[in-house]
Amino acid sequence: MRILIAEDDPVSRRLLEALLKKWGYDVVVAQDGRQAWDILKKNDAPKMAIVDWMMPELDGVQVCQNVRQREDDYYIYIILLTAKSQKQDIIQGMVAGADDYVTKPFDANELNARLRAGRRILDLQSELLSTRETLRVQATHDPLTGLPNRLLFSDRLTQRLAQARRQEQPLAVMFLDLDRFKLINDTLGHNIGDMLLKSVSERLQGTLREVDTIARMGGDEFTIILSDIDNADSAVVVADKVLQALAEPVILDGHELFVSASMGISLFPSDGGNAETLVQNADTAMYRAKEQGRNNYQLYTEAFNAAAVEKITLEHSLRRALARDEFLLHYQPQVSIGTGKVKGTEALIRWRQPNLGLVSPGQFIPLAEETGLILPISEWVLRTACTQNKAWQDAGLPHMSIAVNISARQFEQNELTPMVENALEESGLDPRYLDLELTESTLMQNPDTAVSILQKLKDMGVRISVDDFGTGYSSLSYLKRFPIDAVKIDQSFVKDITSNPDDAAIAGAVVAMAHSLKLEVIAEGVETLDQLEFLRGLRCDEMQGYFVSPPVPAEDLQQQIINGLSVKPSQLPFAA
Predict the structure, then answer these.
(1) How many CB atoms lie within 10 A of CB 242?
(2) Does residue 489 belong to any structural domain of this protein?
(3) Whose CB has fewer CB within 10 Å in the chain, the N or C terminal residue?
(4) β-strands 357-359, 2-6 pairing
(5) pTM strictly above 0.85
(6) In a shared domain, residues 41 and 85
(7) Are 362 and 503 contained in the same domain?
(8) Measured between alpha carbons, how far is 120 from 143 in angstroms, rounded to an integer?
(9) DSSP-H helix ranges across 525-576
(10) What is the per-residue pLDDT across 158-183, written as a single tens digit (0 to 9) for each?
(11) Domain match, 282 and 230 both
(12) CA gap 527, 511 in Å, rounded
């Protein structure tokens, strides 16, 4: 699929070009709106275009208007790239002829999803007549499977609920999610994945009655409305039939695939009286089915009780964890690629729960964010990390920075600056040895406020780093607004940096452009010598990862540094 990128910012253009090539697009580039229009007005123009709103000569809205004013039958799917997020601005772009929009800084997964949706619309348009009926079908049906989409499903569920109320009859909503579908997409490709989705939709339609409704909600998620049922047992019978229908192997392009599904069931009126509640509760039950080993169904009431008890228990334990001194920090060293010296370390929280053992941060951090407990926990991490670093210095270790992650919720609080001041004052740590790490998305939530907060922190003398850089694919030009010292290349790009040309290109672009802004670059997730040598060739400044050391307790890291921290092979000593 050929696609046009119209972007006047060279930094954004190069990063976007590398990303799209990684996804397999044949990329055509325009440096301004005039060049974009010259390309799009040709009969062999790309069928898709990502057009920046603000460009010289012709802006993105004018490009959209020019394209839509052509009187021939050709069609181009246009995604408007804009930093404007006001509703009236978005409406203006859509009225001008844009099919979709992505706000800057954009999320890579969101952009990919919108591009894939655009490609499916283009495929469908090539097969169907360009009529009002076609537009109606596209508005209410999934273009891949032909099933009702979320919009039509919601409308039908509302109608079925009204009917069920009048007749005082039960109704069931089923939420179905294919098991390990992502693995098929990742290993066999999206084409096979799409073919599998079509096959699943056909089997589901063959299992259900005409009075039932099946819809594709997106991705590998399907929903079903069961009308005219007697009780929960009727829904269970249908669920069994669905699982049996899916159990038969599928032959796609020479591949024999076995697919299963996890299903959740909610019932009207016992589990909810409106469409939103019934779908949400069926979704909750579906997740319980996945927890029970997949390839099964769960009724909402059973799943809700189990999940609620588990969550409440974990939350209660989390609330007592600070008072009971159950948290601890592990530290992962950051090493200069040029000299081999330890320049810093990142503090990473761990929770040793008496009954559960070590609880994964991925399990308790989202709960802490949801409940607000992230604020006192983050304050503890900050104070503990500063105190530990000062203790290392007093013990005679080389002075190094210590990096502490700042959550989005913590950054939004007005207490962040005094919290940092108190931690430094209590510990006696020189501010220049504290490095605060924030993600791109946190900074971009409110750039003006972020600049103000970061400047106050910089005035105190602390370092500021942007963590997981590249996952949002924000333009490095945005970083010029922020008083920061370093960016960290996300480990997802480092993993395949020696074998994937696109990852290598993105990493190289980040290093080069960061250096042009006089920023240091730290690579995360370095695990092999080949990765290290590649990063050295890019002139990346620092690295951290299992190649040097996993996160370890404070005493272990101290002993490593005293002994002379090194990496394998032994001929590459990384001494403190």
Answers:
(1) 23
(2) yes
(3) N
(4) unpaired
(5) no
(6) yes
(7) yes
(8) 6
(9) 529-537, 554-563
(10) 999 999 999 989 999 999 999 988 88
(11) yes
(12) 19
